[in-house]
Structures are given as structure tokens and as C-alpha cells.
Write a structure and sequence with these properties.
Structural class of chain B: mainly alpha
Strand content of chain A: 25-35%
Number of helices of chain B: 10
Number of domains of chain B: 1
Largest sheet of chain A: 6 strands, mixed
Strand content of chain B: under 5%
Number of strands of chain B: 0
Distance between the termini of chain B: 34 Å
Shape of chain B: elongated
Structural class of chain A: alpha/beta
Order of helices and strands of chain B: HHHHHHHHHH
Largest interface: A-B, 27 and 19 residues
Strand order of the largest sheet of chain A: 6-7-8-3-9-10
Oligomer: heterodimer
Number of helices of chain A: 11
Distance between the termini of chain A: 42 Å
Radius of gyration of chain B: 19 Å
Largest sheet of chain B: none
Number of strands of chain A: 14
């Protein structure tokens, strides 16, 4: 039995441009998998191939157990897709769009009616169901789009940049919806994003894609740990400075810090902090201020590509 | 349709306006010595042409909508669902036909209210409705091919004046017999002239199977060419997907 999403050396070129360059993927059942990368990294191209909208130039992919090329029809029946810039007719109401989507998936009318009501409830649009979509806010549209991609109870859900352009509150609300789906129904979710926080918050496992290649893959915490130990910064009274420095040196390599502050890379990882503080206390050194800096996914990205994802300046 | 009157109202309104203008401007044409139908009103003369014109105005709608679907990626939504691929084209052609029928019905009714006289009665009216709806689909199929090719509403809309040209250089509002020079020569070979002349035969002289079959034949021929091109373009577009 294949995993819900598998790709082997999947590639796509447009003329001279190699948009996706031989990616390998394996997403387990019930997983939320994040595909993180900057604009133009090849995220959407990869999603379009996995959702049968674009033919791969080479390589193979299986989604929901079926080959995306030789049995595209079977794949389409089993996937839900919410693409970037969701095509939603502003003149139709949420309810009508859900019914239309049910028709597209050949769901019997009676079943569709119940299902549409349920879905509106799930995404919190029951009250707005009979309003035209043109009157919806950006967040409501995305939630409707999510509902649309779920009418046929897909095994695998693809979300292409689900929160791009949303305000922070709507973003968090959408994350909650996706989590709920994943936890309550067990839907496997493949999401692309250019937001570090989104990948960090939502995905159990991520792949970082840059210039068409996957440069890192794993759970966010493992990836962050790979980049390096978290930095612990401690401020002490001047009289204790040398003693503290000597004590802390046992727990990790010294790192640059401003005057009067001691910084080390915690070898034991985040959990090592209590041990360090205990050791300082045993020496009767009073700690005035503590800071712990974990590497972010941005550090992971910078480590892999030499560039920063956020802010745009080079690392 | 109720929610978007701007998409269909103009294609009903303009043909009526033009009909009103033509019938007051050119109505004396019936008195010209070589006018082929001396015994009828000019309104009767231009009735089939006005219906055809109205329907052709509307024939861009289906293609514009399709191009819009491609532009706003509704097409992706369709293609990522298990919808049968040919239905994408069939639905658009059917919509062009039905839309033509809707327009023809309204235009004929309005002309009737304003005193136009259909020689062939109900059979002629039905024949006129059928021919014009088929024509709407036939012309629509070319535009649909363009929509599939370019995926751009702008390009589809920019072809609109071309339809105008086809109508004007035809027998729509003036008998070809009275035209001269290159204009008359083009009009004579404009397939639209044939459609209009045969259809006019039905409404002015009365219903005849010969005229009906000829008109349907030429429109079907146009449709076959257009639909063939559209199928080719659909295949091309789908070939990009798996």
C-alpha cells in the first residue's frame, strides 16, 4: 500500500526553466505536510502536478494510491484542492457554490444538501451561507474555498498558500480549521506556504523547496536542531561574571554576546536550560536575566540556501 | 442571469436600438426599383437579420465566460474534479445555443408587437429560432476555440467588431442585388448573406423545407468547422495536464 502522496524524481520544465527539479516526496496517512519556499521556488508547479493539472516532464507521482498520469481520473475523485486565488464566482452564494461543487463530484442531491450544511457549519459560515460571495471578507472566502475542497470527503487535501493575503486573525482561524480536519477526520493535508510561522504551526513535517529542489526535509523541531544548538544568554552581577562563565562553559561552546552577558550554544538543546540554571544556583550565582533563542525555520532556510526567507537580506 | 443583467441586457438592447434606427433610416429602400420584395415593409425585411444580429451579439458571451473561467482559474477547479473533459466544451456550446434561443424568442416577440409580419406564421418563427440558435452556437464555437487558445477575455471581446463587419458586409440590412463593386462582391460570398437570404425566404415568402434545409445546412457546416477547431484547442489545453 502506497502512502497518500509519493513522488519519485518528479520534474517539470518550462522551456529552459526548470521549475521543479527531481523532487522525492513521501507523505504518510494523516500527516500535515508543509511545503515551504519563497515565491517562484516551484511550490505551485509541484502541487499542480500532484493534482493532475500539469503533466510532469519526467518522474512519477502517486496520490491516494493512484498514479497521477496513468490514472488521473481516480486521483481526482480522491483529492480536494484549494488553489491559490480561489476561483469563486462573486455572484453566487456560498451555499450555491457548495452545491455546484457537489454536482461536479457527482454527489447525489439529497446527500449533497446535508453535506453542504455540515460543511458551512464546519467552516463557520452557516449564517453567511445564503449571502453572495461578493460580500464575503478574504478570510470567509478562504474558508468557503476550504469547504468547497471537502464536499466529496477527499482522502488527501491540497492547500496552495491557503492564507496568503489574509489578516493575522483570519490566518489563525484557518489554521484551526485545518488542524480540526486533520485531527477529527484524519485527512492527509499537503500545504504550500511561504510563511515560516504557518509551516511551523501547522505542519508535522516540512520540506523546504528552493529553485525546484528540496533542500531540507523533516519535522520543524528536528530541522531547527540540525542547524545548531539553541543560544542561551544569561545576565549576572559583575562580581559573578567569571564564575558564571566558567560554569556555563561546561554546557556548551561560548557564543558572542554583549558586554556583561554570557552566551553559549546549549549542547543539550532546549531542555538543557534547567540544568544550567541549577548549576548556577548551586554556585550561589544570582541570575538576573535569561534568554533562550531557538533557531527558527528561517535559520534552517538560510543554512540550506544561504538566503533568508523573511526580510529578503542574505544571511 | 437575474444577478448579472449587464451580461445579457446589452445584447438584447442594441439589436433593438439598431433595428429602430435602420427601420426609420432605410425604410425607403423598399421603394427602390430593384428591391427584391416590393410588397413588404422594411421591418419585415430586416426582421431575420435583426434576430441574427442580436443572437450573434450574444454569441460572444459563452466564449467570454469560458475565457473568464480560465483567467480566474475556475477551469482548474473543474479540471481537478472528476468532471468529464468533453463536457467542458459541450456545456459551452449548449449554453450558446440556449442563449441564442432565449434571445431569438424575445426579439421575435418584440418585432411582432411592433407590427412585423411573419409570412410563414408559427413554423417560420420556429425555424427562425432554430436557425439563429444554431448560428449562435456555430459562431460561438469559433470564439470558444479562441478562448481555449488564449484564455483571455480581452482577446475574445476584441473579436466582437469582426462580427459587426460580417453582419454589415452582408445582405442583413440591404439587399445584395442593390450593392455595387467590391462591397457587393464580398457580401455575395459572405456565408452570412446566404444564411440571411434563406432565412429571409422563410419569413417573407413563407415556410419552405428547401430554404430551411439550405439555411440549416450552411450553419451546420460553419458549426462543424468551428467545433472541430474548438475540439483541437481543448485537446491542446488538456494535453498540458495529465
Amino acid at each position: 500500500m502506497r502512502n497518500p502522496i509519493e513522488a519519485k524524481e518528479l520534474s517539470r520544465t518550462f522551456g529552459d526553466l526548470v521549475a521543479v527539479d527531481g523532487i522525492n516526496l513521501s507523505v504518510a496517512k494523516g500527516e500535515v505536510f508543509g511545503f515551504l519556499g519563497p515565491n517562484g521556488a516551484g511550490k505551485s508547479t509541484a502541487v499542480r502536478m500532484l493534482t493532475t493539472l500539469l503533466k510532469p516532464t519526467s518522474g512519477q507521482a502517486w496520490v491516494a494510491g493512484h498514479n497521477v498520469m496513468s490514472s488521473a481520473g481516480a486521483v481526482r475523485k480522491r483529492i480536494g484542492v484549494a488553489l491559490q486565488d480561489a476561483a469563486i464566482d462573486p455572484l453566487m452564494t456560498g451555499n450555491e457554490l457548495l452545491k455546484l461543487q457537489s454536482v461536479l463530484h457527482g454527489i447525489p442531491k439529497r446527500k449533497a444538501r446535508a453535506r453542504c450544511g455540515e460543511l458551512l457549519e464546519t467552516v463557520g459560515l452557516t449564517a453567511a451561507g445564503d449571502r453572495r460571495v461578493g460580500t464575503y471578507s478574504g478570510g470567509m472566502r478562504r474558508r468557503l474555498d476550504l469547504a468547497l475542497s471537502l464536499v466529496h470527503e477527499p482522502e488527501v487535501l491540497f492547500l496552495d498558500e491557503p492564507t496568503t493575503g489574509l489578516d493575522p486573525t483570519s490566518r489563525v482561524a484557518l489554521w484551526d480549521e485545518v488542524r480540526k480536519l486533520n485531527q477529527e477526520i484524519g485527512t492527509t493535508v499537503f500545504l504550500t506556504t511561504q510563511y515560516l510561522e504557518e509551516a511551523d504551526q501547522l505542519a508535522q513535517r516540512i520540506a523546504i523547496i528552493d529553485e525546484g529542489r528540496i533542500v531540507r526535509e523533516g519535522s520543524p523541531s528536528v530541522l531547527k536542531n540540525q542547524v545548531g544548538a539553541p543560544t542561551l544568554r544569561v545576565d549576572v552581577w559583575e562580581k559573578d561574571y567569571n564564575a558564571a562563565k566558567a560554569t556555563m562553559a561546561h554546557f556548551g561552546e561560548e557564543r558572542p554576546a554583549r558586554k556583561g552577558r554570557i552566551a553559549i550554544g546549549l549542547n543539550a538543546g532546549t531542555r538543557g536550560i534547567t540544568v544550567v540554571l541549577k548549576a548556577l544556583e548551586d554556585k550561589s550565582i544570582e541570575v538576573q536575566h535569561v534568554e533562550l533563542d531557538e533557531p527558527s525555520l528561517d535559520d534552517v532556510f538560510a543554512d540550506a540556501t544561504g538566503r533568508r526567507l523573511e526580510g529578503g537580506e542574505s544571511a | 442571469m437575474v444577478r448579472q443583467p449587464q451580461s445579457w441586457a446589452p445584447s438584447l438592447f442594441f439589436p433593438l436600438l439598431l433595428a429602430a434606427v435602420y427601420s426609420s433610416q432605410f425604410s425607403k429602400a423598399v421603394n427602390l426599383p430593384d428591391f427584391p420584395y416590393p410588397d413588404i415593409s422594411f421591418l419585415d425585411f430586416i426582421l431575420p437579420a435583426c434576430v441574427i444580429q442580436g443572437v450573434l451579439f450574444g454569441s460572444t458571451n459563452s466564449a467570454t465566460d469560458l475565457a473568464g473561467d480560465i483567467e480566474n482559474s475556475f477551469m482548474d477547479r473543474l479540471l481537478s474534479s472528476p468532471v468529464s473533459r468533453p463536457s467542458i466544451l459541450v456545456a459551452r456550446l449548449a449554453s450558446a445555443f440556449v442563449y441564442g434561443l432565449f434571445q431569438a424568442t424575445i426579439l421575435i416577440t418584440i418585432f411582432y408587437i411592433f407590427g412585423a409580419d411573419l409570412a410563414g406564421g408559427v413554423p417560420s418563427a420556429l425555424a427562425l429560432m432554430f436557425i439563429t440558435s444554431l448560428l449562435s452556437m456555430a459562431v460561438g464555437s469559433f470564439l470558444i476555440a479562441v478562448a481555449l487558445r488564449t484564455g483571455s477575455q480581452e482577446v475574445v471581446n476584441s473579436l466582437f467588431p469582426l462580427i459587426f463587419v460580417f453582419i454589415f458586409i452582408s445582405s442583413a440590412f440591404f439587399p445584395v442585388e442593390l450593392m455595387e463593386g467590391w462591397y457587393g462582391a464580398i457580401a455575395k460570398w459572405n456565408p452570412l448573406t446566404w444564411v440571411i437570404d434563406w432565412t429571409r425566404g422563410l419569413t417573407v415568402e413563407g415556410f419552405s423545407w428547401a430554404n430551411f434545409i439550405k439555411a440549416v445546412g450552411i450553419v451546420t457546416a460553419i458549426a462543424v468547422i468551428g467545433v472541430t477547431i474548438a475540439i483541437g484547442q481543448l485537446k491542446k489545453r488538456l494535453a498540458a495536464a495529465s
